Amino acid sequence: MGQGASRDIEARLDEAAGLAEAIGIQVADRLHFRIRQPRPATLFGKGQTEQIAAAVEEAGADLLIVDAQITPIQQKNLETATKAKVIDRTGLILEIFGERAATAEGRLQVELAHLDYQAGRLVRSWTHLERQRGGFGFLGGPGETQIEADRRLIRDRMAKLKKELEQVTRTRALHRARRQRAPWPVIALVGYTNAGKSTLFNRVTRADVFAENLLFATLDPTMREIDLPGFDKAILSDTVGFISELPTQLVAAFRATLEEVISADLILHVRDISHPDTDAQRTDVETVLAEIGAGGEGGAPLLEAWNKIDLLEGEEDERVRAEAARRDNVVLISALSGEGVEDLLTCATEHLRKGSNVRVAKVSASDGEAMAWLHSHGEVLGQHSDGVETEYEVRLSDADWARFQARQAERA
After folding, report:
1. Domain 1-179 has CATH 3.90.25.10
2. I need a labelling partner for 290 at 20 to 30 A (CA). Which of 211, 248, 256, 381 fits?
């Protein structure tokens, strides 16, 4: 149940149901309401609340998911009115992330986000603090004791998590600095959840990353080397899927992970072009990118991969293809069938080459590795050697020129 907010109502309901099903919740009924004036006590009007309570009773439902953000008071009052456990959109997304986090870093980030969210809520237990992994007890469970949160315990736990994450951030920064000294560009895959990023990642890298028709199938970032036309190799990074109204706690908690996107040489935005809300989803992704300081003016170039074109038919297919043809940063693909993927990689190379300038690079005449590097990463326009040193005129991007200089400095 949700407010719709200028999105396709059925698509929004499908997404909410998909979020629930992603963690094994069986959806018994779906309702939507237009809320003209949100009620402080229950969000919904009196008649709407009664209608919801009747639907919950008829379905025999144990859980009511409100596809909006609700206050603790609204949550408590709706639970009283419906005699069912109530969670909102933020709580549901955090619950999914709690189950999906596979790495120690992911679990730290999600738990911190969850604690921040729950700090002002006098609902549910804090038994998850004693568990190692999986979910956060929003949905209850056998043997869980219902106790009010110990706020001091929460604050202490949050402080401990923040210290641990600071260490993770420092380690990740060191790894990133090491990669930036390497001669390979980094391409970050971003996109709305379930847009097909992991399917594309698997096809390009021949990897076997968890890729299913599920919201948030990928949570922890994955990086692989790929072959890219005109480069020895490149690094492709698959990131967590974005979503509308992504909880601010998660944006903050996952900042360390999302910094991989900020430092990328190219941002590859994978869009499900067959989705009725594809334009709204693009806006959601761009909003999160702006929040973390990625993309935009002065940032890495952004290339859009319009995925799932195999699902388009007739006039819609013609319209999308015509629109894509008018733009120089769009490639039509089907990550499932492989259609357009080679064109996408070629276009990625072109975008990485953009902004290249002619530089003068001097290398030892015996440094064959440096010569090969310049030929593979830039366009060599001329060269002159005196037998001791070779001077190259080479067209390189700012990022590649910085990599070359760092490489040479390390070897000096």
Report:
1. no
2. 211
The DSSP secondary structure of 268-331, one letter per residue, reads EEEEETTSTTHHHHHHHHHHHHHHTT-SSTTS--EEEEEE-GGG--HHHHHHHHHHHHT-TTEE
Residue of 353, 354, 399, 358 whose CA lies nearest to 228: 353
Which two structure tokens, joined as six digits, stand for 66? 């409100």
What residue spans define the domains of the chain? 1-179, 182-353, 357-411
Write out pLDDT tens, residues 91-110.
888 888 777 776 777 778 78
* 8 A C-beta contact, residue 260 and residue 221: yes
Provide the token pair at 286: 């761009």
| Domain with residues 182-353, CATH architecture | 3-Layer(aba) Sandwich (3.40)
Report the predicted TM-score, pTM, of the whole model to 2 decimal places: 0.71
The backbone region for 157, taken as left when phi is positive above 0, alpha when psi lies in -120 to 50, beta otherwise, is alpha
Decide: 234 and 226 in contact? Cβ < 8 Å.
yes
- CATH fold match for the domains 1-179 and 182-353: yes
* pLDDT per residue as tens digits for the range 139-160: 554 444 434 445 677 788 888 9
Q: Determine what percent of the chain falls in helix, strand and coil, rounding each to the nearest 5.
A: 45, 20, 35
Q: How far apart are CA 126 and CA 144, in angstroms?
A: 9
d(CA 217, CA 211): 6
